[in-house]
Amino acid sequence: MTSPLTQLIEAIDPRATLIHHWPLTGGVSAQTTAFEIETPDGERERFVLRQHGDRDRARDPDIARHEFQLLTTLHAAGIPVPAPIFVDPAVGIVVEFVEGDIRITSESPPTDRELIEMAHWLTQIHQLDLESADLSFLISVDYQSADRLEHRPGDSALVREICKVLQRVTPIPTVNQPTLLHGDYWRGNLLWEGSRIVSIIDWEDAMIADPVIELARARLELYWIWGAMFCEEFTRQYVARNTIDLATLPQWDLAMALTFARAVRGWGLPEERELEMLGKLEQFVDQAIEQLSD
What we know:
The protein is α+β, with helices and mostly antiparallel strands.
């Protein structure tokens, strides 16, 4: 029986031979498989097959085609993303294999140059000309829905506190022109070569929304892994490159903190690491609440 991978290779280049394939770890929303092929003239090429999970397919049944279209737009605009090669909506998308490092351990904090690079490319994403690109298929997440802000059985004291404050300040108004958001812009989705980002991956959560939402999420990722200094320097570098109204940043900081506070206990982290991150999350929440009261 022909495997989906073999079928895709035949569609890409019927003359090519599969040399080997291997799983890529780290992602949770999609299954990713790297593979290498050889053409009749002896050249070898490597690609990545991304197969979306049930959650994403339920949210967008045509997500493979939509992500392929988005990557095509981004690649043409000069954003460092894997070049899209082929799409089979029933299987997934094939993109180029990009060599690079992922730097997410607490022992590898970002350098000033890396924070500048992160801020630069996030700005480029947020400044993409949407009038020339048809991205109407993108689906946004409602971070302010009533059910997200209601207390749930098992909620921690921190979650209850965040919900209480957010219930007072929602709905959060849109204060900036909606732009393209990556949806999960953090160092786990960035491939590095030295101090340069060579690829921004995993675009299945992309949406059109107020860019301050993504700034808040990226800030939190830096804060609770590496600390306040990295969060604030990244914010400073981003604001220096993008004209943005930060009036609602404390509210969005809290909305992102709520998402993470509910999710962290399901990530299977070592207890010591989980407690350390929750401690930083509490500091992040306290800072946002204090800014709201100013």
